[in-house]
Design a protein that fits this description.
It contains 5 helices and no strands. It has 77 residues and is an all-alpha fold. It is globular, with a radius of gyration of 13 Å.
Length: 77
Amino acid sequence: MMLNDTIKATVKDAAQKLSGHRKRDFMAKVAEDYFGGSARKTETTLGWNRHSVQLGLHERRSANPKSLRLSIDSKAK
């Protein structure tokens, strides 16, 4: 799917205002909705880090964000 420049700018701006697992979740949602879940197409079109998109997709599938696992592990010590 081709996104026009206005939509690309809006999506990039929204992602820039997020951080951590929330940003990865947003990036993964965009990848699923507009690029068939392809991290590579998302990277090419929006310039996002492919590995971050892949991690976000994995976190969405497993419903267990990495950052939440780390915080739970650190509290257990």
